[in-house]
Amino acid sequence: MKIPLDCIPCQIRHFINSARMFTDDEAVISNVLDHTLSVTSKYKSYDNIFQMYIDANKIIEKIGSGSDPYEGFKKQINKICLDAETDLKKMIKDSCNPFETALRISIAGNSIDVMQQGNHISHKIIKNILKTAFNQEIDSSAIKKLYDEIIKAKRILFIGDNCGEIVFDRIFIEYLRDNVLHDKINKITYAVRGGPALNDSTIEDAHSTGMSSVVNVTTTGASIPSAYLPYSSEEFRKVYFSSDLIISKGQGNFEGLFDRHENIFFLLKIKCPTFERFFNNKYKVGDIIVEQPLQPD
Which run of H or E residues covers position 218? Predict the structure, then answer.
């Protein structure tokens, strides 16, 4: 997997931001920058961006003694999204197309990203994110195909992404449970990260947001911001390959799975020009999408 050059500045920015979550000491932050620049300058020696992330993240693990720099931030965002739950469920109930409404809520959650909004998310920002998602175009044929595949599937793996977003994913899954799958909800497994990675959801978020009380929850087994199979646990790969439908949220998961040939639907917001190029400029920055890659003959 070739590392997109435009991703390198984002990596550097992330690690400086992570360091500032722990300390205001400019000497420590300078050391983090020096380490990150040293790692990213060797980008040609890495097989993939996740390998580079792991090496760069070692200094964050060291200064934080292995703790999650985004722990407080994630709790705050989960709380804000939980506060919106009642209104969102009413929107689904009152909608003339409740499946699409629930799906749009889930995809809207992918706009909650520390790399996009920084460390300041508010109720107002969440409200605006949702309003935008409801007014954007999504390919109606892709929505119908996803619905049909959900009905048909025997086992579904739903791979989550960010904190906050996990609340909106649960709302979507609960809609499926109550109105589409009924007594077949056990066919869904929801996956979170195996440990701290950016503001991505972990097993702690699955418990605190109620996801683990709705569906089976597993982890990728890796503390990287993606479901990248070579670095995932045997348990996760077993769930992955036994699923006949995979719903993948976010750009990070797309980076890890875009060259796979399983039955995958990618649900995400296009956040940078690199992803415009991934999709051959079919979409533009700001678009929210439901995309199923062409399957090989």
Answer: strand 216-219
Of 33, 63, 93, the position where a domain reaches its end is 63
Q: What's the mean per-residue pLDDT of the chain? A: 92
Do residues 166 and 160 lie in contact, with contact meaning Cβ atoms separated by under 8 Å? yes
Residue 1 lies in a domain: no
> In 3D, which of 166, 215, 151, 165 has the Cα closest to residue 189?
215
Domain tally, the chain: 2
Of the CA atoms within 13 Å of residue 278, those in its CB half-sphere come to 26
pTM, entire model: 0.94
What pLDDT is attached to residue 284? 94
- Beta strands across the sheet bearing 245-249: 216-219, 188-192, 156-159, 245-249, 264-269, 288-291
Burial class (CB in 10 A: 0-12, 13-18, 19+), 255: buried
Contacts of 99 (CB under 8 A, 6+ apart): 143, 147, 175, 179, 180
The domain of 53 spans: 7-63
* Within a domain: 275: yes
Residues 161 and 195 occupy one common structural domain: yes
CB 201 within 8 A of CB 160: yes
CA distance 227 to 19: 24
Q: State which amino acid sits at residue 184.
A: K
pLDDT in tens, 12-56: 999 999 999 899 999 999 999 999 999 999 999 999 999 999 999
Domain identity same for 59 and 150: no
What's the one-letter identity of residue 100?
E
- Beta bridge pairs of residue 190: 158, 217
Length of the chain: 297
| H/E element, 247 | strand 245-249
